[in-house]
Amino acid sequence: MSDDTSTGTDGAGSGAPVSEATRTIDNRSSRINVRDFFARYGLLVVFAIVVVIFKALDPEVFLTQNHVQNVLFLPSSFVPLLVLATALTFVLSMGDFDLSFGSMVGLSGATAVALMVNFEQPVWIAMLAALGVGAAVGLFNGFLISYVGASSFVITLAGLVGLKGIEQLWTSNRSITIPVGAQPFYVDLARNVEFWDLRRPVFIAFGIVAAAWIIMDRTEVGRYMYAIGGNTEAARLAGIPVARIRLLGFVIVALLASLIGILLTAGISGIRLNLGDAFLLDAYAAVFLGAAVFRPGQFSIPGTIVGALFLRVIEVGLLSLQISNAWINIAKGVILIFGVLVSQIMLRRK
Amino acid sequence: MGATAAATASADVFLEVQGLVKDYPGVRAADNVSLAIRPGEVVGLVGKNGAGKSTVIKILAGATAPDEGRILLDGEEIHLHNPHDATLLGLSFVHQELSVVGDLSVAENVELGLGYPRQAGVLVDFAKLRRQSREVLARLGGGVSPGVPIRTLPVAQQRLVMIARALVTQARLVVLDEPTGSLTDEETSQLFAVIRDLSGAGVAVVYVSHRLEEILEITDRVVVMRDGAVVDDRPTEAFDTRTLIEEITGEDASETALQRRRSHGIGGPPDTPVVLEVAGMEVPGHIHDASFSIREGEILGVAGLVGAGRTELMRAVFGADHRTAGTIRLHGEEVTIRRPADAIAAGMVLLPEDRRNQGLIRDFNVRRNITLGTLRSFRRARHLPMPSSPKEREASLAAVRDLDIKTPSDLTPAAWLSGGNQQKLVLARWLRSGASVLIFDEPTHGIDVGAKEEVYSLMEQLAAEGKAVVFISSEFGELVGVCHRVIAMREGAIVGEAVGDEITEARLLEHCYGHSPDESLAGSDEL
Q: What is the largest CA-CA distance in chain A?
């Protein structure tokens, strides 16, 4: 019986035996409950309305099996968004920032592809090298931020610029293509597998999200991360190895960004410039949108999943209505402001 | 009571405070306080920690509003809504913690917020600003250059700059709160010269200090506060150090504490093995060569005035702050403590002074706060680092029951609990850990009388179970009422000790004010 997840800690409506006193508080005013409901689930309601509208406007295509498989869960856009937003949730929940993971995606992909194509290394060396670079970047960021005490904003901003430079150095600032038929294992990473006809990266993404959810919600490390985010000094005085766990957050982000770099370059059989840039801001948007549901103000993996799905549905829905990219970006911005504001206003009134 | 104050007020009184009352939850911080201040007068304000000095100052500064009472300036009632109001009316405050903007120049700090001189209406006329400040600073002596960033100056000169600010505003009253805290003797006498100048120019000075020699030297009149009320207000000639300490201590408070001590049969420390032995602790700027030890089942009090280094010493022992020297032995063996986790693993825990900001994770519920320190003991299986909810629930419900924590449920956010119950929450976290040394830093601060007695009983119960309890408190009465032994700290050093029946409030205060009757201890102060 696990009533004690971060998504429902106040006990209302959970399976735990609720004391008389709590029940009294809950029954005191139904108005408070309505507010509370909207603070927690308002964004989900909006999400549902948006889905219904899109379905009404485009009943033949929107959210059919084919549409979900090939458009909504498109490996080259939904997978990076979901995985990077999940990774970002770890550092944000501890009150840190990471701006470098977009560039890390490109650097990792470039490392793998350049090693295979330009240096004719076997695929396993290429992939290990890409992940190794990610681990090194994560350790570097984490060491400077949590042990030396530098600002995570500045250090990872330096990473955003610097890692891109390294990528340009290794690729001579040109796209590299994996020749057709070469590296079948690598290219296959992004291919369909025979299960519900989804591509492999989508399954990998789901696996990562499930693991992240378990880590954040059910393990000691996850609990410590939330404690650090809630009150770093109190966490330190409670004996939590704060520096080590903050460092772990940056390593997780850089490693998952490396993995995304591998999957994206496998999907397009090569590396092109600025591969990961587009996901930086969308990932932030998804995580912050996610902090407006379930437990407002608290970053969580389930929230991040909702945020990422919502952003993707808006994008896909508007695209299928042949609405231009400009309006899609505007819509994303509006949803982000709206989602965060609604839950904050509801919380404040309480 | 206003009538009494009016009666004592002579014609030249310019600032009068009548019947100020200020209540904080559980404590009356100012209890019918009346004061009258004349131009050019230097008034000493003394009292123990929490006697109400800072509350009166905050009210005069407009930082907090009184519940009752009024302030008269030149016979007219004034209302101070914020510190700026006080500045405009000529009341100037130099607080213990200097509020300087480090990167701005001396001149910019002197006139910060007072409206800089302008050029063409918009641009700051820096030349004029510097000239003005130079004139003011010249009056104070000390040779401070107006152009340098203030953070490059020593604290003594920074304090002069803040006094210069008072001169610029044509202040009629300057309040100096613990102004000599970090000054050398020479700097102190320079400050005294400035105070005499101010006084000669008709500016009244209120001088708040724990250093009684200074009070006796510089002031014309001394106001003694105790438990929120003014208990004495006479010309300085009427006092010497001993009579001042007597007035500051009061008899009633120590009497109730002594009664508690007797009725609970508290004596000296038990004859048990030493648990914790700390030697030669050094924390630059805070602690100098501090050594102490504590036995099983002993309650060791740590007395001292605010800023004496009690919290800093214990934080360093616990590994929360960095020490440059010092060894720590637990059960006779030297332990390496670099961070709190090391101390906890060795069996030592700390209940921090500021429980809201250092003890609790306020967004976490009661259950998660209780289990946070010992989370590894709640695993589903030995090698699976996942806490088990049923195990956590069982432990937290037991703790809520055992310590009588008042909460609707153990899933209530910790932020919703009252101060006393938050304190118990942090205690509950550590009781499970099986620690052999528990350090309580001001555990009764801001909690009501009933809850205080509960905290004392808990400490006694822990001691009876053989734990070593370190009890830091600014209320000397409660140290008298609870401790087997008390060490006193002053200016970062341990300056005295009282054992068993020697523990009286007067004796502790004598140690803390540096007026030790014991020759050898007085000698060691000079180190």
A: 71
